[in-house]
Amino acid sequence: MIPNLIVIFSISTISTNVATVEDLFIGREPQGEYIYYLEANKSAALNQQKKNSLINADIKSNKPKASSRIIDANTYKLMFEVSTSFENDTKNIALSYIKDMKNNPERYSTLKSLLENKTAKDVFELIDLKTGEYILPIESNKNSASWIEFSHFNPSDQNYSMHIRFMKVEDERTLEIRGHNKFNELTIGELYSHWNKLVTKYENTPMKKFEHANNY
After folding, report:
1. Helix, strand, coil tally for the chain in percent (to 5)
2. Residue 96 sits in which domain range?
3. Burial profile 46-72: b = 16 or more Cβ within 10 angstroms, e = fewer
4. Does residue 207 sit within a domain?
5. 141: closest CA among 116, 163, 170, 162?
6. What is the pLDDT of residues 168-184, one digit of tens each?
7. How far apart are CA 18 and CA 31, in angstroms?
8. pLDDT in tens, 34-62
9. Please, which domain of life does this record's source organism belong to (predicted)?
């Protein structure tokens, strides 16, 4: 079951009032993202006054706040995000994934009946993998792809994660729609269903060029 979530930031596909990582997060390095949508489990949300006290921000800044709340990137357990980027590094990563998904014959659609009620831990048991990463393609075409990443790197703990992603490259822009889950009890079907609603809404976001987002 999807836990209690809070929408931190949301704009339409035609809006130009995008947010940056610094607007909506603490504890995350920006990589040139322009954010359209951000949602996370409620316990990871902080108000802007708390952010100011944590990072000793200049609260006299005249820049309007994108949101009254922000996310602590070190404590969230479930997050959904829609963003665009014009960075070459991001574009190259997306193109590499798109190529890999095309060359991988597996598809979530053919395994859905088997996997939709499974957790990330269940998947590791099914494929008899103790630690590491397993990538399951959802679909791919000429300039986009979607997939699910299952990961578990520390054999001494029981923390498994699922990362579901859609990436689309158009000219110099990369659009990404993703969900990142660290709740062990969340099923693949639950994560997929919530994420797919965002894909339906944002996958055809009109091309708009933005500038000046930081990339550290």
Report:
1. 30, 35, 40
2. 5-202
3. bebeebeeeeeeeeeeeeeebbebbbb
4. no
5. 170
6. 999 999 999 999 999 99
7. 15
8. 999 999 999 999 986 555 444 434 333 33
9. Bacteria
Is 133 part of any domain?
Answer: yes
What secondary structure letter does DSSP report for 215?
B
Beta bridge partners of 173: 170
Strand partners, 170: 173
Residue 29, number of CB atoms within 10 A of its CB = 11
Q: Considering the domain boundaries, does residue 183 fall inside one? A: yes
Average pLDDT, the chain: 90
CB atoms within 10 A of CB 152: 20
The reply to whether 151 falls in a domain is yes
Q: How many domains does the chain have?
A: 1
For tokens 């933005």, name the residue: 210
Q: Which residue has the higher pLDDT, 25 or 216?
A: 25
Contact 194, 179 (CB under 8 A): yes
Q: Report the pLDDT value the prediction gives residue 146, as an integer from 0 to 100.
A: 97
Quote the CA–CA distance of 187 and 119 in Å, as a whole number. 4
More confident residue, 158 or 14: 14
Where helices occur in the chain by DSSP H, the ranges are 21-24, 48-55, 88-103, 108-115, 120-126, 188-202
At 69-104, the pLDDT tens digits run 899 999 999 999 999 999 999 999 999 999 999 998
